[in-house]
């Protein structure tokens, strides 16, 4: 039965696993940063809109929609 890459034997040094994971995740982050350069701004815009919308609902006295937003 094949063993998943996520499951490592206990004989593998943790340093090797962390080094490999760091390289993999760094490469993945750089790939998505090149593919979607405006992703960070979009997340910031959505957060700001959500915070402003929740503030607007709270200012009107409607607590439930503000909490839901």
Structure explained in plain terms:
This protein has three helices and no strands. It has helices spanning 14-35, 39-59, 63-68. The protein starts with 13 loop residues before the first helix and ends with a helix. It is mainly α and 69 residues long. It has one domain (14-68). The model has no long low-confidence stretch (mean pLDDT 84). Helices cover 71% and strands 0% of the residues.
Reading the helices and strands in chain order gives HHH
Number of helices: 3
Mean pLDDT, nearest integer? Answer: 84
Count of domain modules: 1
Structural category is mainly alpha
Count of β-strands = 0
Structural descriptors:
elongated; 69 residues; mainly alpha
Topology diagram in text:
Blueprint: H1 14-35, H2 39-59, H3 63-68
At a glance:
The protein has three helices and no strands.
